[in-house]
Amino acid sequence: MSLAPLVVVSGPSGVGKSTVVAAALALNADIWLSVSATTRAPRTGEQEGREYSFVTGERFDELVATEGLLEWASYSGNRYGTPREPVEEHRRAGRPVLLEIEVQGARQVRAASPSALLVFLEPPSWEVLTGRLVGRGTESDESVARRLQAAREELAAADEFDEVLVNADVQECAAALVRLVADHRAPESQHPDEERSTPTNEA
Ligand code: 5GP
Question: How far is the CA of 78 from the centre of ligand 1 (A)?
Fold first, then answer.
């Protein structure tokens, strides 16, 4: 059975993943972006079901226990995960699926779904990354410090990815991402149950 491609976009917090992904969706309306579940509180302007599905810790535990998540990770004091069913449905319906997730989750997708394409977004420099993370003003000082620490570790993971895009220009980066999605074909032999394996998450 042939499935539409699964493409993961990852990279450190502050690199501009959401902005690049939004620009990519504007260029190609066929791509479906997964909405993650998170235990993080909504930021001002975020809407339930649009940026995230905001859930309690208990609900998140339930999703993990029932294998409802394709992957999940703890990040900067909160948990984030990709609901499995909608990803499978859209892929079966022929729509390429994009996941915008952090590095630990990308590794789980690689293990569970070897044909997924893993794309890493890099900042043009460390200074640009720190400037964006501090300048966007959405995080407390403590959260910025935690995210910068995580970013150092995440940047070192770039060579585990199939493709690396430098986010120097949002439109160019988005166009490059759309080309990668269009060019990526999941193998015909892929088994529909390929993604049934449980995430090996120890967090
Ligand atoms: P934020 O709190 O800034 O929205 O997200 C923090 C980090 O979690 C970002 O790197 C974001 O890409 C990542 N993230 C969002 N959703 C998921 C998910 O479903 N799984 C994983 N592993 N990471 C996610």
Answer: 9
Closest ligand 1 atom to 36 CA: 19
Q: Which residue has the tokens 């729509």?
A: 95
Cβ neighbours around 121 below 10 Å, total = 24
Is the pLDDT higher at 134 or at 39?
39
CA dihedral in degrees (139, 141, 146, 148; nearest 10)? Answer: 80
Q: Mean per-residue pLDDT for 78-102?
A: 97
Every domain of the chain and the residues it spans? 6-187
Q: How far apart are CA 144 and CA 63, in angstroms?
A: 28
Stated pTM of the model: 0.90
Quick: pLDDT tens for 136-193: 778 888 888 888 888 999 999 999 999 999 999 999 999 999 999 999 975 544 454 4
The token duo for 98 is: 């994009």
Superfamily designation of domain 6-187:
P-loop containing nucleotide triphosphate hydrolases (3.40.50.300)
% of residues, the chain, pLDDT over 90: 77
Determine the residue of 9, 17, 36, 79 to mutate for testing ligand 1's pocket, defined as the one with the most ligand atoms within 8 A of the Cβ atom.
Answer: 36
Q: How far apart are CA 158 and CA 165, in angstroms?
A: 10
